[in-house]
Backbone:
């Protein structure tokens, strides 16, 4: 079973590179090595603010496993 990974971070820059229309440089507040090792593609969901508690609640209702890398 796949485990969804959740992490806090801070937006550091919004560069422009021709390969993608949405680009953000983010400093991860947590286990970035684990995030890098378990990365499954380049499509990420990003939200402003700390919504980890709410995301955890919603994910549990869908019976999906998740891990907070900032905990």
Residues:
């Amino acid at each position: 079973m796949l485990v969804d990974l959740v992490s806090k971070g801070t937006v550091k820059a919004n560069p422009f590179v021709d390969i993608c229309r949405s680009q953000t440089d983010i400093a991860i507040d947590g286990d970035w090595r684990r995030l890098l090792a378990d990365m499954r593609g380049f499509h990420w969901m990003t939200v402003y603010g700390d919504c980890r508690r709410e995301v955890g609640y919603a994910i549990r209702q869908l019976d999906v496993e998740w891990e907070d890398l900032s905990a």
Notes: The longest strand covers residues 8-13. The chain has a mean pLDDT of 85. The chain has one domain: 4-66. The helical segments are 32-37, 52-61.
